[in-house]
Write a structure and sequence with these properties.
Blueprint: E1 3-11, H1 14-30, E2 34-39, E3 53-59, H2 62-69, H3 72-84, E4 85-93
Antiparallel strand pairs: 1-3, 1-4, 2-3
Helix pairs in contact: 1-3
């Protein structure tokens, strides 16, 4: 079952975030990921979003998403995103009703 990495955040350090993007991009292909959405101006219609940046990445499974997130390659750059942004990220299955 497909799984999605969904991040929603505000960029607080654009230069450091640009470094993160350069390092993170190549890790996606290595894990069979598909960038579904990258929106710098997402609009919250309910509640208060942490920022306008939204990223959705599709993986074959939850295990594949975790494999990417915990890979040595991604862990080498993720601290830059965490330092350069405020917000959250989740992994969500495409259909998990039970």
């Amino acid at each position: 079952m497909a799984a999605y990495f969904i991040a929603q955040y505000q960029i607080t350090n654009p230069a450091l975030y640009a470094e993160y993007q350069q390092g993170a991009g190549p890790t996606l292909a290595a894990h069979g990921a598909e960038l579904v959405a990258f929106d710098v101006a997402a609009e919250a219609i309910e509640g208060t979003a942490p920022g306008s940046q939204t990223v959705i990445i599709k993986f074959e499974s939850t295990e594949a998403a975790h494999g990417w997130y915990h890979s040595a390659e991604y862990q080498a750059v993720v601290a830059k995103r965490l330092e350069a942004t405020t917000g959250y990220a989740v992994i969500s299955q495409s259909m998990n009703a039970g």
